């Protein structure tokens, strides 16, 4: 049994993607919040901001799940590699 380096790469890639998605969503929330504070309140604006913030919060949750998935892939690959080393020794 061989553990491919691509398994480790896939795990790291998933974590990196999650971090990038998290940063983008957090930036979008911060931008929306700062724009809402600097503009006069309009009737339709709060609904649009709420929809945008809700979408970004969903993106944050997806980013969290992506990072957790990457961590699980890395953990499984590491455990498999440890088992192989124990068998070979």
Low confidence ranges: none
Instruction: State the share of residues found in helices, binned by percent.
Output: over 70%
N to C succession of SSEs: HH
- Rg on CA atoms, Å: 20 Å
* Beta strand count: 0
Tally of individual helices = 2
Task: Please state roughly what percent of the residues sit in beta strands, choosing from under 5%, 5-15%, 15-25%, 25-35%, 35-45% or over 45%.
Answer: under 5%
By secondary-structure content and strand pairing, the structural class works out as: mainly alpha
What is the molecular shape? rod-shaped
Mean pLDDT: 82
How many separate domains make up the residues?
1
Quote the distance from N terminus to C terminus: 14 Å
Give the biggest sheet: none
């Amino acid at each position: 049994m061989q553990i491919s380096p691509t398994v480790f790469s896939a795990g790291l890639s998933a974590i990196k993607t999650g971090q990038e998605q998290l940063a983008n969503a957090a930036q979008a929330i911060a931008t929306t919040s700062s724009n809402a504070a600097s503009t006069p309140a309009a009737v339709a604006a709060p609904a649009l901001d709420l929809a945008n913030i809700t979408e970004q919060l969903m993106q944050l949750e997806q980013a969290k799940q992506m990072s957790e998935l990457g961590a699980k892939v890395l953990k499984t690959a590491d455990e498999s590699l440890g088992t192989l080393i124990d068998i070979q020794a």
